Amino acid sequence: MINPTITDDTLLLEVEGIDKLWSLKGHLKIPLIHITGVRIDKDIAHEQLNGIKMGGARIPNVIKAGTFWENGKTVYWDVHKPEEAVVIELSDEKYTELVIEVADPEKFVDDLKAKLDSTQ
User: What is the pLDDT of residue 48?
Assistant: First the structure.
């Protein structure tokens, strides 16, 4: 799971617990100006079963974590529970998308959208 923090100009995503090992990352720091979209997507974890694992873990129905090459995009994953999956679309970053699990997806998406709206 990811613990997100939204600051004035940055989204900091702290990878929690053993997921640091699975995903090969401890944190991600994304400038808000590089975020082009954010949405809850409860189906994406079920749809994205293919793709090339570039580093991380994929155990069906348990976890998908790490870096994957999917449909021409570099995607970072950290999802155990697909119903809590959030997709963050990026530009000018190593990753094209982040697919992450957060404790309260609705609140996180609402807070991030509000922050993005206020900075534009």
Answer: 54
Which residue's structure tokens are 């963050």?
88
C-alpha span between 95 and 117 (Å, rounded): 22
Return d(Cα 46, Cα 38) in angstroms, integer.
18
d(CA 50, CA 11): 28
* Low-confidence spans in the chain with pLDDT less than 70: 46-50, 120
Tokens 């609402």 correspond to what residue?
110
For 79, residues 6+ apart whose C-beta sits below 8 A from its C-beta are 45, 63, 64, 65, 85, 99, 100, 101
At residue 120, the 3 state secondary structure works out as coil
Pick the CATH number of 2-119 from 2.60.40, 2.30.29, 2.20.70, 2.40.30: 2.30.29
